[in-house]
Amino acid sequence: MEPVNRALRRIPPWSLYILVAAWVLWMFWQGLQGHLGVDPVKVLEHTYGERALQLLIAGLAVTPLRRFFGLNLMRFRRALGLTAFGLVLCHLLVWLVLDVQIVTQIVADVLKRPYITIGMLGFALMLPLAVTSNNWSIRRLGARWRVLHRLTYGVGLLAGLHYVMLAKGFQLEPLLYFAVILGLVLARVDWKACLIRSDRANARRDSLQNP
Amino acid sequence: GLGSIAGGAVAEEGLATNTWEEVTSYCNFYEFGTGKEDPSYYAGAMTTSPWSVEIDGLVDNPGSYGFEQILEAMTLEERIYRFRCVEAWSMVIPWQGFELADLLALAGVQDGAKYVAFETLLRPDEMPGVRYPVIDWPYREGLRLDEAMNPLTIMATGIFGKPLPNQNGAPLRLVVPWKYGFKSIKSVVKITLTDQEPPTSWNMANAREYGFYSNVNPNVNHPRWSQASERKIGGGLFAKRQPTLMFNGYEAEVASLYEGMDLAKHF
């Protein structure tokens, strides 16, 4: 893996921002030109959302990839998270401005339609993460920063659930996305610590019961 | 044949139709995939000739009716209808077809019949989408007999003066313009007259969201999409939403079918 890691070190993380921003504009331009099929609003809404989900998954995969395969993408993690947030914002804006359009209907949709409620909750959880994705915040928050950024697991699960819930009927693709996210979140659980903790708890209970 | 198209007596004047490309590349036909463009890519594999429709149940003349045999007995006419999907988009489509009532008359509806059940072709080696249990195949739909006999209810065989493309439900499909699009079942191979409300696919998959009637109704809330307004396909990125009409604009013709019914309960 070392040659790959060495090659990756030559790619500046900011190139990801440029790439994603260019892609967002390119897709929008395609929509304006009538190249996104007969329902460009839905195409934009769905591709922005799906690409955001992929970047979220990539962000969640950084640590497991390093731990299990030695692939080091740590330098790109902030850019992955922030571009995912940017795409979620675009996804949300397309839905608000081009799709639903009507303010009262937007409010009703958020409150009454569970998959939209879940999506909005995921977006809300991303806000503190996006705001604190900078060196200054990391220094300021210290240990609390790591705790706060565990919200990414919640965001990932909510995003996956949002996709599963909006699919009509039984569809495979959203379930595969959700399974991958669930796997990545479970990979972050420190199972050994859990076992030790429960061993300790058992021991404590035993010692209380049999003094 | 198409030469015998009569004037669309029931069709509304002045509806601006969508384009051929819009109507034929934006389809829900899950037997060929769940993407809107999947049917236009994959439905070409479906064999539509020879084609026959099994008509059975409470009819005087049950049996297999060949597509050509049906066409010979029917008079085709053009109907320009609004088409409103439950996903809150809509189109205007110029159909060619005949009234379902005429086909049912051919089969001879018996006195006890109260409902009509329909089934779509299920041919796994020509339909990549049915490998997945998206819904419980084959696709099934149903109407109350009076809905089926309403003059607005047609069996379509063409659009824009051409035979139905496969992705639009060739060679023969139902069109019920005052109901959400999924009621207008495609590529029909079976019609059964019955005295019981038949099971219907989306109702079986999710009864909370899809009722048996599924009349277009801006006042009845749907757990997934607001039905108060719709986006008309073809307006580009900045098309304004338009308000959804009661019974999709066919209230004068069909409201009497539901007199005294609580449409919020029988949604």
Automatic annotation (TrEMBL), chain A:
Domain spans labelled Ferric oxidoreductase: 61-158
GO cellular component: plasma membrane
Stretch forming the signal peptide: none
Pfam family of the protein (one): Ferric_reduct
UniProt membrane topology term: Multi-pass membrane protein
Subcellular location: Cell membrane; Membrane
Cofactor(s) needed for function: FMN; heme b
UniProt entry tagged with the keyword Membrane: yes
Known partners and oligomeric status: Heterodimer of a catalytic subunit (MsrP) and a heme-binding subunit (MsrQ).
Function, as annotated: Part of the MsrPQ system that repairs oxidized periplasmic proteins containing methionine sulfoxide residues (Met-O), using respiratory chain electrons. Thus protects these proteins from oxidative-stress damage caused by reactive species of oxygen and chlorine generated by the host defense mechanisms. MsrPQ is essential for the maintenance of envelope integrity under bleach stress, rescuing a wide series of structurally unrelated periplasmic proteins from methionine oxidation.
Family recorded in the similarity comment: Belongs to the MsrQ family.
Protein name as catalogued: Protein-methionine-sulfoxide reductase heme-binding subunit MsrQ
